[in-house]
Amino acid sequence: MQNHTNAQAVLTDDAPSPIATPTRAAWLAVLSVAVGSFALVTTEFLPVGLLPSIAAELGVTEGIAGMMVTVPGIVAAFAAILVTIGVGKTDRRYVIWGLTATLIASNLIVALSHSYPLVLAGRALLGIGVGGFWAIGGALGNRLVPEASAARATSIIFAGISLGTVAGVPAGAMIGEMMGWRMAFFTASAVSVLVLAAQMWLLPRLPTTSALTFAQLPALLRVQKARLGMLATLLIFIGQFAAYTYVTPFLSQVAGLSAKTISVLLLIYGAAGFAGNLIGGWAVARSVKNSLIATGVIMGLSAAAMPLFGATAAGATVLIVVWGLAFGMMPISVQTWMFKAAPDAMESGGAVFVATAQISLASGALVGGVSVDYLGVSSAMVVGGVFALAMAAVITAWARDDGKPLAKLHAVH
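Request: output the structure for the sequence above.
Response:
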């Protein structure tokens, strides 16, 4: 399956590609990784649009069903570090193949399971793929094409993430509405099979001459500004996923919307997020601090206002659009802050940052789930809003305005 890619130069960590202009095969390899990122994002957040039907069939509360987001996030936090260190100098194409294979297995286990603990086991397997991919796969753009085209390659890979947010989750919700939630996971598994086949066909050899060690991990934490960025990441991710994980039950129970209408609103949310991504790129070019503060305030107020103004279709639609814009701004604002804070430590500390983001995601879903089960679904919106506003307050109080970023970065959802 590798015949036509073997002609490509072998890419190593230490030697830049001698090819000045990327070949068609190189761009196809980049595209295969981008489609993999799309499949990952879609699978990770697939339960968000399906929580009510999953909870009803498996006989659990919607707060407990939210563990389908929490569990892979927790596992991904550890996998980001353990996989990165554990694979050592293994050819990165084999690593990516293995991580993509976890998507296939995870979706099949969930789709075929009638036991909720087994469903969670399948989702835990997904966590290995998610954590490992973001610690390794996100850095492949500058290895698959020459340095001059690396930024474009990276943006293509991250575009798969945005597309997964815009189209993947609402598409899963629509499939679940028409053919049941299990078919949504079967479909995700089938897509993952195609992704794996494309990667096995298109990815060139990606050997590496160095391996990450545990001693290198704390590099990011030694930088004060990076520690502040990690705190901001913790607060904003908890806020986002405490509320977003339970937005479907809210729209169903409080706003009284049909499953079809909710699917449309999820699509609108994703489209607003894509626009927010562009706005975030403009904002961080002027002030990363102000971009972070704006993200926290907009997200916090729109989420917290859902119980007050989101009980009607019109009110929910307006708030979903505003919230989506903030969601799109969130990753590029956080990522730019971190890269500015410690550009030399991000390579060694990247796994720590991924772990922080994933544990925050998992904690958000968990906090929201507890709130839903004890205080009602509307409370998750308020809790999420409070955490987001807390992030804005922390940056306002402790961050210095740091001017323009060192380099234009691309968002990671």
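Residues 1-19, 403-413 have pLDDT under 50 and may be disordered.
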